[in-house]
TrEMBL record:
Record keywords: Flavoprotein, FMN
Lineage of the species this protein comes from: Bacteria, Bacillati, Bacillota, Clostridia, Eubacteriales
Protein name, as recorded: Flavodoxin family protein
GO molecular function: oxidoreductase activity
Organism the protein comes from: Acutalibacter muris
SUPFAM superfamilies: Flavoproteins
Domain (NADPH-dependent FMN reductase-like): residue spans on this chain: 1-102
Family matches, as Gene3D superfamilies: 3.40.50.360
Domain of life: Bacteria
């Protein structure tokens, strides 16, 4: 299986990035092909140009997400990592989600998704606060969007200060068991 990892944080000691890398290492050791795509630099938001609807293809922007849209059709799983800013996934994460607008061939009723359903989506969030229901509700609200594109969402993994090593080990095991 092809497994694509996306990381939003550009911090050199990023915990979410460390966990995504551990996940991919596990997946690789289990015999899968992995690809890591950092999107903290060179990422654009959706411009609303609708080229993806007019030209019947993925987003036309040549930016940090180009390799993602190239790899997505043949991927069996995506692992996505971000830091938590102001209680929500950081801005890059929201831009990443917005850019999935191009997965539908038209707007509104009757839209067809351009990728096969059933791709697994693993999410990893790093935060300063302990794991808590309020933040989890925020993640759920945002991640629900992925249901409309046919992703099969897995329970988010939260990485937080004192227990970060355990969470990174858990990320490795999730990748290994994919
Ligand atoms: C601008 C900013 C806002 C943050 N807001 C929160 C927050 O609301 N709640 C929280 O638990 N941690 C918050 N943090 C801490 C980060 O979530 C934490 O440093 C996390 O490890 C960042 O992810 P990363 O290590 O993958 O970069 C914030 C950090 C920054 C820089």
């Amino acid at each position: 299986m092809n497994v694509v990892g996306i990381t939003c944080s550009c911090l050199p000691k990023s915990l979410s990035q460390k966990a995504v890398k551990a996940f991919l290492q596990g997946a690789e050791e289990a015999g899968h092909n992995t690809l890591l795509i950092p999107i903290s630099k060179g990422l654009s938001g959706c411009t609303g140009c609708h080229a993806c609807k007019k030209l019947d293809g993925f987003c036309v922007q040549q930016d940090a997400l180009r390799p993602y849209f190239d790899a997505l059709p043949d991927a069996g799983a995506v692992v996505f990592g971000a830091g938590i800013y102001m209680g929500y996934p950081q801005g890059e994460a929201w831009s990443f989600m917005n850019r999935h607008f191009c997965l539908h061939d038209c707007v509104g009723e009757g839209a067809r998704c351009r990728i096969e359903p059933g791709k697994k989506l693993y999410t990893i969030f790093a935060q300063g606060a302990p794991d808590n229901p309020k933040y989890r509700a925020n993640y759920e609200e945002l991640l629900r969007l992925f249901d409309g594109w046919g992703f099969e969402r897995m329970e988010p993994l939260v990485v937080t200060g004192p227990t970060s090593e355990d969470a990174i080990q858990r990320a490795y095991e999730l990748g290994r068991a994919i």
